[in-house]
Amino acid sequence: MMKKLIAFVVMALPLFAFAQKDIDQRVEEIMAKMTIEDKIGQLNQMDGRRDLEQIKKEVREGTLSSIMNIVDPAVTNELQRIAIEESPAGIPLLFARDVVHGFNTVLPIPLGQAASWDEELIEKASRNTALEATERGIRWAFAPMMDIARDARWGRIAESFGEDTYMAGRLATAVVRGYQGNSLSDQTSMAACAKHFVGYGDAEGGRDYNTTSIPPRTLRDVYLPPFKACVDEGCASIMTSFNDNDGLPSTGNRWLLTELLREQWGFEGVVVSDWGSVAGLIPHGVAYDKRDAAHQCIEAGCDVDMSSRSYLLNLKELIESGEVDMAVLDEAVRRVLRLKVALGLFEQPYARTTEKSDIYSESVLATACRLAEESVVMLKNEGEVLPLLPEKVKRVLVVGPMADAPYDQMGTWALDGDKTHTVTPIAAIREDWAKKVEIDYIPCLTHPRDRSTAEFARMQEAARKADVVVAFVGEEQMMSGEAHSLSSLDLQGAQGDMLEALAEVETPLVTVFMAGRPLTIARQVEISDAILYAWHPGTMGGKALANILFGEVSPSGKLPATFPRNVGQIPIYYNHKHTSHRAKGTEGNLDSIPREAYQSVMGHTSSYLDVAPSPLFPFGYGLSYTTFELSDIKIEKTAVTPDESIKVSVLLTNTGRREGTEVVQLYTGRKTASVTQPMKELKEFQRVTLGAGECRRVEFEVPVSRLAFHNRDMVLAVEEGKYTLTIGTDSQTGLKTYFKITK
Ligand code: NOJ
Predict the structure, then answer these.
(1) How confident is the model at residue 586, as a pLDDT?
(2) Which of 147, 151, 221, 274 is catalytic?
(3) Are 379 and 497 members of one domain?
């Protein structure tokens, strides 16, 4: 029974970090012994949440290459044994899972992680995630998602790194490094999967799975670069997206999957379809049946068919009839086998065992807590109501449906998070602060959509007696994520009314939002004294929030997505283009429009009559318990050539009374180019921690090549001319300087 495994072990390469040529040679040896059926089986991926006996049968027959969603090592190991010992080709299985933000220990949702602007911490937390997941036998993770998301109605904005291309690339590659570790062959490493290729986040109307209409230049300059960054980082796989862009569903798009991804970018890894998206060509209306869909997708360059069985059922016939070339099948199989060899599955096919489990370990939880702390964005702090220092505040009233929502605070895709491990805000506040401060707790609403006002009077009564009220509001876990889009971003249920009732009482009000997306919170900002935006912060979210509320930690998060004033402003993002009728800063106001006049007060500008064109909070915005000042911007050379770097520095001073961290952001922009340009674009950022009164020169070096864009001839190039460079603490303010790019 152990025959085949032993054969592989004897052939095993001396090192686990295999050289590419050894991997290739190994793959050719394996392929030489495979039948056409064995090969087609290697392109089939199916869900494991089915009848186990049926799955065993499929493994034994060799029709399964990869199985999703089994996290019990006893089961994965048994299936693996069958694959190796009883299947015709004896090729090990690859177990896959949506490991999106943490595994057992749930990290903040990716949008929250992005608010930390801390790629090192994200990498470290992702490494921990890999430790937990590989203990459960998972070696292929369907993350990171790097879809650019400029529409908060789209439920999957939660899974994104926000609206900015450069930032998405920086943070997605941090996840790739964390998951894949130093070598894929290390048993603690998982193959990462850059998704969804491409444009999925631009779904019309913010409705998940909807059509996208991204023009070629925007596709190349805005949506593709994070994927290119992941390819360059060595990301092992890429998942196609469900959407059709300009008429072509991604899974059947040969230009995208072969010409661009492989021929131009040199990607050598595996392309996997999204769930059923090979057969998805049929409802899209570009394939007649699964046979036709399989034909189009394999030729487009999609290697693995996730769960539609179109390849399994049709490739043999397509090859025997000569419609699909055997070489096309071989190439796809080669890629899958290369990944399996690189992962060391032929040597160590079974779930990793360890004497000391990493699951919910102290250090894993501590990192998750730190990331949750860094993800919290303080949007308002009038009269320095925060932090709640015990010498100032004796009695705190905690209210709201998110104060004790252990499941909801984990957010979307918390498949393996156990809510009994979640630390909720009220639990952490009681545990850490009840001895120093009197804590009252009235949930008031049982969940965010609860419409009951029955507890309002009692809550107001308690609020009168308190020195401060902390209200936890937001969204349930299932209000965001895949297939969970919304048309209104207002607080749901009676949450808005609950806050109004609290505002009627004079006691200072701190509102903490826990949500999967930017909500429309203009009114709540107006009536609250302080606002913390905590996204869905994961397992350790409550502890992180307690640390911030009571001043153990100063908030340092910065918005990774623009906050609209109302849903009608969407899509709204900081790096919009220069237009011929630039918006005025005026507040839109219907009452200011004269009757029977030809022209409104705004004139012919790109504005709304009823709301200001500006956002409620801009990208990059976030406050701290201390204050920072930027001064003395210095650029080393005011003229640079395309192969040089821009070297610029600025003085950052902590002008407040305590230590804090500022995220210093560098933006460039230009007015005149061969094609219209964004007003400004993020090109670099740094988190800087300074003690009270401390001052430091923050230095940046940006390669000029980073300023390249697709020009009028659709060539990626740096254009000569004059540029502005702004260094600020958000996307709208900062110190400006200029430089020129010359030949
Ligand atoms: C569909 C989702 O779009 C994708 O992100 C996910 O990885 C797959 N399902 C697998 O669960």
Answers:
(1) 65
(2) 274
(3) yes
Which residues of the chain have a pLDDT value below 50?
1-15
Cα dihedral 39→45→51→54 (10° resolution): -10
Residue where a domain terminates, one of 549, 578, 613: 549
- Name the 3-class secondary structure at 701: strand
Buried-exposed string 305-323: b where 16+ CB fall within 10 A, e elsewhere: bbbbbbbbebbbebbeeee
Amino acid at residue number 93: L
The pLDDT tens digits for 629-640 are: 999 999 999 999
State the Cα–Cα distance between residues 127 and 586, nearest whole angstrom.
Answer: 47
DSSP state of 469: E
- Beta bridge partners, 439, equal 396
- Going from the Cα of 142 to the center of ligand 1, the distance in angstroms, rounded, reads 7
Q: Are residues 280 and 199 in the same domain?
A: yes
What pLDDT is stored for residue 607 in this prediction?
A: 87
DSSP 8-state assignment for residue 145:
B
- pLDDT tens track for 397-450: 999 999 999 999 999 999 999 999 999 999 999 999 999 999 999 999 999 999
Q: Residue 8 carries which DSSP code?
A: H
Q: Is residue 623 part of a domain?
A: no
SS3 assignment, position 617: strand
pLDDT at 727: 98
CA distances from 135 to 73, 76, 104, 163, 188 (A): 8, 11, 11, 34, 8
- C-alpha 98 – ligand 1 centre gap (Å): 7
Helix (H, G, I), strand (E, B) or coil at 675: coil
Alpha carbons 567 and 575: distance in angstroms, whole number: 18
* Cis check: omega of the bond before 425, within 30 degrees of 0: no
Q: What CATH number is attached to the domain comprising 660?
A: 2.60.40.10
Pair (232, 273) in one structural domain = yes
> Into how many domains does the chain fold?
3
The pair of structure tokens assigned to 547 is 């640390």
pLDDT value of position 1:
39
Strands 695-703 and 709-710: unpaired
Residue 162: inside a domain: no
Q: What pLDDT was estimated at residue 520?
A: 98
Contact 82, 5 (CB under 8 A): no
Whose tokens are 């971003």? That residue is 489
Q: What is the CATH number of the domain that holds 390?
A: 3.40.50.1700
Whether 368 contacts 125, CB under 8 Å: yes
Among residues 481, 514, 549, the one where a domain terminates is 549
Looking at the fold, whether 267 and 312 belong to one and the same domain comes out as yes
Q: Which atom of ligand 1 sits closest to the CA of residue 159?
A: 5
Map residue 288 onto helix, strand or coil: coil
Which of 46, 98, 175, 243 to probe ligand 1 with, by most ligand atoms within 8 A of CB? 98
If asked whether residues 78 and 203 sit together in one domain, one would say yes
Does residue 385 sit in the same domain as residue 321? no
Q: Give the domain CATH number at 243.
A: 3.20.20.300
Residues 6+ apart with CB under 8 A from 168: 114, 146, 148, 160, 161, 162, 226
Q: Is residue 576 part of a domain?
A: no
739: left (phi over 0), alpha (psi -120 to 50) or beta: beta
Residue 475 structure tokens: 């969204």
Q: Which residues pair with 194 in a beta bridge?
A: 238
Pocket of ligand 1 (CB under 6 A): 98, 142, 195, 274-275, 482
Q: Supply the DSSP symbol for 577.
A: B
User: Are residues 532 and 453 part of one domain?
Assistant: yes
Tokens of 513: 């939002």
Q: How far is it, in rounded angstroms, from Cα 310 to Cα 48?
A: 18
In a domain, 437, yes or no: yes
Is there a single domain that holds both residue 225 and residue 305?
yes
Q: Domain of 702?
A: 628-741
